């Protein structure tokens, strides 16, 4: 079993290390990764996720409902806990706490979802569908609320009525939905729901983009990491423990509680 896990995860870390090395060596500008990010997040991953969702029968998509409950619950419980610790215990500003908690509570589904699930569970439409559902949950149900806190604090600093920022929530959610990595798989879900089949020619045409998604996402992650400086303090240590140990336990507990095992 240990060999199977190592064999599955080794390519992930190797490609990330290659990206990290490329960034550190100056082969890739790790301060400006916008072009690579656009390719991964606006083309490669959306193509993969659209192809997976549009080819999945509606019954298979509905069957992902328990996954939505578990992911949403695990993310929100983690978000609430870290936000409380950051603001009450570590005395961080609401703005800093909002960004930190989003980083901790929202896993990197986009860049690492497909590589990890594909390596462990095998590549296929069901794997891509699970990643698409995960990205939608995070982008639509988590990110807008982080932005809402930032807008609220900005309004307070300007002496405006912060209560009015609640009216911005639909706008912020729509802003998230408009991203290709979100509306791509959502479009596939809609087409699947109404029974529209995509031509094989179209699916074959976007398949190469999907094949490039996994490696490009991992390489991009490595490049981004190469531009960061390692810092360690009590808040970061606490956040890391929550991210790596507590949040998976919360997800497991929700699975057991809902009888999904």
UniProtKB/TrEMBL annotation:
Q: Which GO terms describe its cellular component?
A: membrane
Task: Name the Gene Ontology biological process terms.
Answer: transmembrane transport
Per the UniProt entry, the signal peptide is none
Q: Which UniProt keywords apply?
A: Cell membrane, Membrane, Transmembrane, Transmembrane helix, Transport
Q: Where in the cell is it found?
A: Membrane
InterPro entries, alphabetized: Mem_transp_PIN-like
Q: What is this protein called?
A: AEC family transporter
Look up and give the organism this protein is from: Klebsiella variicola
